[in-house]
Amino acid sequence: MREDKGLSSVSLATTHELMPMTASTLRRIATTLLAGLALALHPLVSTAQPAKPAAGARAELRPIFVTAPEIAEGRRLAEVSCARCHGIHGISSAIGIPHIAAQRAPYIYIQMREYLQGKRPQSPMTGAVRFLSDDALVKVSAYYASQDPPRSAAAPAKAPAQKPDPVQAGRAAAGACAGCHGDAGVTETPGSPNLIGFDPKYFVAAMNAYKSGQRKNEVMKPMAAGVSEAELNNLGLFYALQKPARAATKGTGDAAAGKTAAGGCSGCHGDKGVASDPATPSLAGQDAQYLATATQAYKDGTRKDETMKGAVAELNEKTIRDIAAFYASQQPQAPKVRKPLSLAEWAERCDRCHGINGNSTDPLVPALAAQRTDWLEHVMNAYRTGARKSGAMGAMMSVMSDAEIKDLAAHYSRQTARAVSFIVLPPN
C-alpha cells in the first residue's frame, strides 16, 4: 500500500443486503483496487465515516474511507485471525487455502460476512470470523486488498502438447469404419449397424464388448482391439454429434405388427426407439437386419445380457423381424451430447465476468489470476456439486469434465495478477 496524508477509499457493503449496481452508480461511488487502495478524491473526512452516497445511488454499496492507521489495525487483526492460514501478506502456502492478497476488498468482506452468517458450510473460516465485528471485517478486507498480488505459478518446464480436437480426431479415426457404417455413421450395408444416435458411453461400452469377446464378431474383434480408449471416446463423440438419419437399408418385417409387439421394449428403449438412459442403445432408424441378428444373438446366448435374454426368450423369428422393421422406420434423434470446448474457449467465457486473464475489474467478482491451482479446482468442483450456490457458476461447472476443470485452474494460476485502480469520480 502506498501511504499518503490523504485517505484511502474502500467500497464495501455496509448493509446486510446487496443488490446489483448500475454502471452509472459505480461511477459515482468509491470502489477498491486490486493491488493498492485508491487515494480518495474527496476532502478529509472523519475516520471510518461512510461518505454520503451520490444522489440516486443505492445505499447497499457505498464508500468507506479508511485511514493508514486503520489499515495497520487491519494488519493486527489479520495477524491474530487470518495469517495462520492465509499468511500475513495474504499469500497462502497451505494446500486448499486461497491467496487473498490484492483481492477486491468488497469481495473479501462479503465472503467473510457469508461465513459469519452461516451461508457457507462449517469450516475453519466460520470460527475465524465468529468474533470479528463489522468494523473489524472492513479493516481486515482493506488491509489484504492493499497487499501486493501473488505471483503466478511457474509455467511447466516443457509446454504441454496442445490437445487435438476430439471431434476432428474422431472423424479421422472413423475413416476405417466408413466402408461398412458409412462416412457419417449412417449405414448403407444391410447387417451393419448405424453408429449415430448413441450416447458415447454406450458406443464405447459396445466396442469394448467386441474387444473382450463378450460380443462375437470375427470382423469387429480385431478392428476394436487396435483402438485405444481415447480413440474410442473420440469416435463415440464424433458419431454422437452427426445428424441423425435412418439406415439406408430395407427390412423384411411388418412394421405395423412390430409396433404392437415392441410394447415390452419401450420401458428401456423408448416408445419410438429413443432411449433416455445413456447406457441403453436407441433403436430408432437402425438397420433392420442388424437389429434382428442382434436380437437373435441375445436369445440364443451368443450375446451375454440376462435382461435382454429374458425379454426376447419368447419371440419367434417373424416377430423379431417385425419389431426390427418397426424400429427401423422410426426417426432417430441426436443424444444430449455437447461438443467439448477448448481451454481457450472456456477461458474466454470465464474472462467475461472475472476480467481479462482473470484480473477482475468488478469489486464484487473475485480475481482468478495467480490463484492457487488446488483452490480453484476445489471451488469449481464445489459449484459443480452444489456445495457452493450460484446459478451462473453452477450451470457452467455442471457441463465441465474433471480434466477441463484441472486445465482451467492451471491456466488461471499461471496468469499474472495485475493492479487495477478504481477511483472516485465527482458527481455529475
**DSSP summary, beta strand count:** 2
Give the name of the CATH superfamily of the largest domain. Answer: Cytochrome c-like domain
CATH class of the largest domain: Mainly Alpha
The helix content, as a percent range, equals: 40-55%
SSE order:
EHEHHHHHHHHHHHHHHHHHHH
CATH topology of the largest domain: Cytochrome Bc1 Complex, Chain D, domain 2
Number of domains: 2
End-to-end C-alpha gap: 29 Å
Give Rg in angstroms: 30 Å
Largest sheet: 2 strands, antiparallel
In round numbers, the mean pLDDT is 84
The poorly predicted ranges are 1-59
Q: Tell me the fraction of residues in β-strands, as a range.
A: under 5%
Largest sheet: spatial strand order: 1-2
Shape: elongated
Second rung of CATH, namely the architecture of the largest domain: Orthogonal Bundle
State the secondary-structure class: mainly alpha
Query: How many helical stretches?
Result: 20
